[in-house]
Write a structure and sequence with these properties.
Blueprint (H helix, E strand, L loop, with lengths): L1 E6 L21 E3 L3 H6 L10 E7 L6 E3 L4 H11 L10 E5 L19 H8 L6 E5 L2 H5 L1 E8 L2 H26 L3
Parallel strand pairs: 4-5
Antiparallel strand pairs: 1-3, 2-6, 3-7, 5-6
């Protein structure tokens, strides 16, 4: 399985303990099988251009849990966001990214104002992108680094425009859906 991680460093050996514990799939090293998605979200930071690391993951002998955009997925990500203990026993988790983590939704889904059913209906809107979280050291050992490439400034500007358009469409869908609540 080819996977991509965009950041500001060449990461040949990922640290599964680096990062937020309250992320969608809890603590782990996050990647995506969608190179275009990985590149699209890359931004210049403090004069540094983003770097796309490419990997290959061998899933054999790993315990993999796959999520769909449904109630089970919603319960799992909200459990993690609320700081509960991650009880899912998996080396690798593959599933949808919650769009409110990639678009600026002003915290609507996690505000507590919406019911779980309403929040789930909003999270099921818009494009579906896949994330892969390496949860264990065993999974990290099954990940082979292939290469790292720096993105150009022109590519980051082009992608920023795509993201702005996509976000506007997503926010409009949220507004239309919330009018039905």
């Amino acid at each position: 399985m080819l996977l991509y991680h965009t950041g500001y460093e060449i990461i040949q050996q990922p640290d599964i303990h680096y990062g937020r514990k309250n992320a969608d799939f809890a603590q782990g090293f996050y990647l995506t099988p969608d190179r275009d998605f990985s590149v699209r979200w890359a931004k210049e930071k403090e004069g540094r251009l983003p770097i796309v690391n490419t990997y290959e993951l061998d899933l054999s002998d790993l315990k993999v849990h796959r999520f769909e955009r449904n109630e089970e997925w919603f319960s799992y990500i909200f459990q993690n966001r609320r700081g509960k203990t991650d009880t899912l026993e998996a080396d690798v988790i593959i599933g949808p990214i919650a769009n409110d983590t990639i678009y600026d939704t002003l915290g609507i889904m996690t505000s507590g104002i919406l019911s779980d059913e309403e929040a789930l209906s909003l999270l099921q809107l818009g494009p579906e992108y896949t994330q892969v979280a390496l949860k264990t050291k065993k999974a990290a050992l099954h990940l082979s680094w292939i290469e790292a490439k720096e993105l150009t400034e022109a590519a980051t500007v082009k992608n920023r425009d795509i993201i702005l358009k996509e976000q506007e469409e997503y926010i409009a869908m949220i507004g239309q859906t919330m009018e039905t609540f």
